[in-house]
Write the structure tokens for this entry.
Amino acid sequence: MARTTSLTYEQIAGAADAITVRGERVTTRSVRDELGSGSMATVLRFLQDWRNRSNRQGQAVDEMLDLAVIKAINTHIGLRVRDATASASERNAELLTEIDGLLVENEKQASTIEEQAGNIESWKTSHAAVSARVGELENTVARLTEELLGERQTGEQARIALAKAELRLEAVPRFETEVAQLRAELLQSQKEAATYHEAAAVAQARLETSVVKK
């Protein structure tokens, strides 16, 4: 079995620094994963040394700072805090103004909604009246339609009767012509009958005369 590679302080410190730069939390497990191998006990021991040295370095930096620098930093921080506070106050004032405007707008909208609700009720009343009127008109239209259909049927019958009468009137001249012809034929027949009657009378007379002579 291969022997575990011994870790050095420099390796563990480098891994811890890399994790810190990435903004991640430095733990024994994260350093061990960063290195990829090594004893957890060794990592824990050297990591504690790294933390102690980091703390001492931070304290040394603080001690090395000049009081004037610290004062300047504090002054700068105070100015930033004041600016941030002023900006926050201005923002709060703007928010209050916006809230007041929203409240006014809300009141206007509430008034508009109430007015629209009244208009809706008025519209409902008007709609009911119009609906009733429409119902009356529909009934009237149905009645007039029925009457019109009856009148159309009556008119159709009248047109048929008129057409028949016109046909009869058109036939009158033809009938008159036929009547005239029949009258002429009747007169001719009467004349012929008279002639035949006269001839028969003459023949009868001759016959009687002939009988007497014998």
